[in-house]
């Protein structure tokens, strides 16, 4: 009996160490708000750039004004099977976007974590072209976090963004994520300011430069390239300096279906990857 109890205790202790290691990683990289990990293989493949990315429903997490560039129904499923090799850090997310007379409306649901630590998030967004070349948008987020035997708490936030086509080949954009942020445990996260440009050298390629600033943290400089090699294949690369990151990815297009893959490296944690399946309608 004593031996069985000792084995049970050892397993419990190992599980506890794993759980709290995961929780520490989650909070150290601010996964609660999903800011550093990103959503959508197009942005992740270019170091989480928002500006140069072909418009999709995931823009609600970067700059909601760019949703106005979506001209038909779109639905995407996004998976992070095991971030940095840890199955506990998995993400499943789903997003839809639909153009309406009010603008393009987008919504998403996602789940992060495992049975002992779980985050469930929902978001709704609206992006609208105000006048020719100028668009604006906003996103409302709600995240509920449950830690086994330690209770649960929630967080809500509001983002805004604008974008302006300076010319046919040059676009500028700016966004403020967490413009308003509240949590059930009384802690407020600082806003995240992003400003950047996207330039198209020719029809098949887009280059983007972006700077992001959060509170008292150093600014994050990002650069990315998207190049459409064939009608059915787009490739992407990106880099950022805070934290130091290199990313790459691709998308395969077939009629209305798209399969996407993206991976990025972290200086200390190594490589991680994500996949996406998108269907677009009329």
Summarize the structure in words.
With 282 residues, the chain is mainly beta. The protein has one domain: Porin (Beta Barrel). It has a 14-stranded antiparallel barrel. A hairpin with a 4-residue loop joins strand 6 and strand 7. The N terminus is likely disordered.
Question: Summed up, what is this model?
Answer:
By secondary structure, the protein is mainly beta. It has helices at 2-28, 41-44; strands spanning 74-80, 91-100, 103-113, 117-131, 134-147, 151-165, 170-183, 192-199, 205-214, 220-230, 233-241, 244-254, 257-266, 270-280.
Q: What's the overall average pLDDT, rounded?
A: 84
Which residues form runs of ≥5 with pLDDT under 50?
1-9, 24-36
Q: Please give the CATH architecture.
A: Beta Barrel
Helix content: 10-25%
Tally of separate helices: 2
Count of domain modules: 1
- The quaternary structure here is single chain
Please name the CATH topology. Answer: Porin
Shape: globular
Q: Which percent range describes the beta-strand content? A: over 45%
Q: Count all strands and give the number.
A: 14
CATH superfamily heading: Outer membrane protein transport protein (OMPP1/FadL/TodX)
Radius of gyration: 20 Å
Strand order in space, largest sheet: 1-2-3-4-5-6-7-8-9-10-11-12-13-14
Give the topology string: H per helix, E per strand. HHEEEEEEEEEEEEEE
Structural class: mainly beta
CATH class: Mainly Beta
Spatial gap, N to C terminus: 66 Å
Q: Describe the largest sheet.
A: 14 strands, antiparallel, barrel
